[in-house]
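It would be a great kindness if you could assist me with a short task in structural biology. The matter concerns a single protein, recorded as an amino acid sequence and a row of backbone structure tokens. Kindly check, if you would, that the fold set down in the tokens agrees with what the sequence suggests. Thank you for your consideration; the sequence and its tokens are set out here:
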Amino acid sequence: MQDSRELLKELKINRNDDDQGWSPTLKWGLGIGLLAAVAVGAFLYLRESAVPVQTALAVKLGTNASGGNASVLDATGYVVARRMATVSSKITGRVREVLIQEGMRIEQDQVMATLDPIDAEAQLNLSRSQLAAARSLSGSVRAQLVQAEANAKRVSALFDKRLVARSLLDEAIAARDSLRAQLIDSEQNAKVAQDQLRIAENGLDNTIVRAPFAGVVIARAAQPGEIVSPLSAGGGFTRTGIGTIVDMDSLEIEVDVGEAYIGRVTAGMPVEAVLNAYPDWRIPAAVIATIPAADRGKATVKVRIGFKEKDDRVVPDMGVRVSFLEPEIETKKVLVDRGVMVAGGAVVQRDGKDVVFTLQDGRATQTEVKIARRIGDDVEVSAGLNGGETVIVDPPEGLTNGSLAAPQAKSP
């Protein structure tokens, strides 16, 4: 029994025994390191990363800048040029020199490029030689005809005096008539040669490419040494144009208006245009005409709108938002709140509701909105936004109210 007690004493752990090799300093160091590792892990786990998003501005709709007349209809469209041309040469040839650059202003008939004129010059020289030969032959025949006519006259006088036989008179008259026919033929050949020379001169002139009207160069398509042709060769190695020019005075706006609202649009109706590139610039305009044809697929009718002011900032293919305004009436000053216009991708469904995420202080705020109508790729919101907010376009599925969001620049 005593032996058992002794054995139990030997198995007892002595907690005050420092023979284990764990010094107090080492114990404190390990504890602090463990706490630091736990803190770093918790920070990395709980840290919230910003979601990259695309943003756009919510635009307030309503009256024009002067507040005199209200908008009765809003639409979106693009700036188009009624007079634009890709200029090519009339003939196929190798480009010798290109005299235009993008952004360059040119006048009507100004030289844009020249082609290699070797073949055209050779044809011109040949036509000149042919004309000279035809004229020389005509002169020779004319001289022979003068002699033949004199001879026929002399023989006729002798025949009247019974001094020569009838056969000699017939020969003289035949020689004269033959030379007359040759002269007519040679003069006709000379005229044909003259026409051929004129064609050859036109062929040489066709090696010079000129501007059909005054405008601005928006594209330079050919380089020296390339082959250009008015028709596509099909192989992809032949250019079909020298450059593209636009008459900036012919710029106007084309918008698609829904069939249900086209009755509100009339010719001469005042319009206020806002370019997407310059949202604070309101441009006065007016309806030119309504094109009498509807798009069956989109159920829209195209409307042409002309600018009342010309400005170098307006260029083709710019996106534009227009407001069709009520005619100006001195006795009627009505201000109409039309709501807020946002990009169509900004309105999404969350829990069966139409919502928009706005960006404030780097965080997304979910706001329920009420859709009034869709205008092209945009949406008019009648409730939920006041205008001027920065909205998130195409928000990711994981984006929630209060999430960190970082605006990203649009890729080109």
Summary: The chain is about 30% helix and 35% strand. Residues 64-82+249-325 form a domain with the Elongation Factor Tu (Ef-tu); domain 3 fold (CATH 2.40.30.170).
